[in-house]
Design brief:
- There is one protein chain.
- About 55% of the residues lie in helices and about 0% in strands.
- The longest helix has 25 residues, at about 1-25.
- The chain has one domain.
- The protein has 13 helices and no strands.
- The termini are far apart.
Length: about 325
């Protein structure tokens, strides 16, 4: 009797332990709760909404200081001249080093070098290498202080401004360069206003931050129209910055940071962090003085020669009249 009772107790205990997992396994809803393990987001594109403006600028500066893209280096040179970002002080030197490694784009790269060097020397035939439509808008504006614009340039500029997208942003960039070069192209206030409005519309009010929006916002600040960039967009830019300090081409698609979006993200935030009534121009200007810059070593050498010559003359004078 005792053995039978002990056996019954063991069976009941075993069933109590085994029944819940068995029921869970047999449940018709158990399979629907199983979800595939999500792919982990790369650490470089993890975003944080808690960083400050200063932290975002510092992180982006560190990220872009490692860039190997030549066009990005020219924009870094603008930031160095405008905001004194010392990490970008040698960006033009790095740009020149990269010219030899880009033979297929050499002519266009030499043309754009004018952004950082007022005296940039360009062979006339290099302008025939300009085939992209956006370059046909920007490069003539870049050299509008020394090279006549074609008769149809204004119509091209208007077409780009009305086309939206990257053509509208580059039309704004061309207008900035035309103004800085004191070009006499008749740009009406109505045209400029419509161009500013078109770029402001590109930013929009959605939660996504993408490359086109960052470019439009940065160019508006470069044009002195930063008031058209909403503060809410600036907050979204800071919130969508990647862990490595850059920005993806679009914040709704996890991807590695993209130098193009990142350089304009930093350009925008630098203007926000360091507001001013006016800034140094985007294009490098001629030196503010006329004359020859003397090498200090040469000056010292000439001074020594003059001093020695004066001593010789003085000694000869003393000998003569002793």
């Amino acid at each position: 009797m005792k053995k039978s009772l002990f056996a019954v107790v063991c069976v009941i205990a075993f069933c109590g332990l085994a029944l819940p997992p068995l029921l869970q396994f047999m449940s018709p809803t158990s399979e629907s709760t199983l979800q595939p393990t999500p792919e982990p987001t790369p650490p470089s594109v993890v975003q944080s909404t808690n960083r400050t403006l200063e932290e975002a600028v510092g992180n982006a500066t560190s990220y872009l200081a490692q860039t190997p893209d030549p066009f990005c280096l020219l924009m870094l040179n603008v930031m160095y001249r405008r905001f004194g970002i010392t990490e970008f002080a040698d960006s033009l030197q790095h740009y020149d080093q990269l010219l030899a490694n880009n033979p297929e784009n050499l002519r266009v790269l030499v043309l754009f070098r004018r952004m950082a060097d007022y005296s940039n020397d360009v062979p006339p035939d290099f302008f025939f290498a300009v085939t992209e439509y956006v370059d046909q808008i920007t490069i003539p504006a870049l050299y509008s202080d020394r090279k006549n614009l074609l008769d149809d340039y204004m119509s091209k500029l208007e077409h780009a401004a009305n086309s939206g997208g990257y053509l509208a942003t580059h039309a704004l960039l061309a207008t900035i360069w035309l103004q800085e070069n004191h070009c006499e192209l008749p740009i009406s206030n109505d045209f400029a206003e419509s161009l500013y409005y078109a770029n402001a519309r590109l930013i929009g009010t959605g939660s996504v931050v993408d490359d086109l929006q960052l470019e439009a916002a940065a160019f508006l600040y470069l044009a002195g129209q930063g008031r058209r960039v909403d503060d809410a967009f600036v907050r979204r830019v800071i919130a969508t910055q990647n862990y490595d300090g850059g920005w993806s081409a679009s914040s709704d698609t996890p991807a590695d940071s993209y130098w193009h979006a990142s350089v304009f993200g930093l350009m925008l935030l630098l203007h926000v962090e360091f507001p001013a009534a006016s800034y140094p121009p985007m294009l490098a200007t001629a030196t503010s003085y006329d004359g020859v810059c003397l090498n200090p070593l040469v000056v010292c050498f000439v001074a020594v020669l003059l001093f020695e010559a004066r001593k010789v003359k003085l000694k000869a004078f003393v000998v003569k009249y002793q």
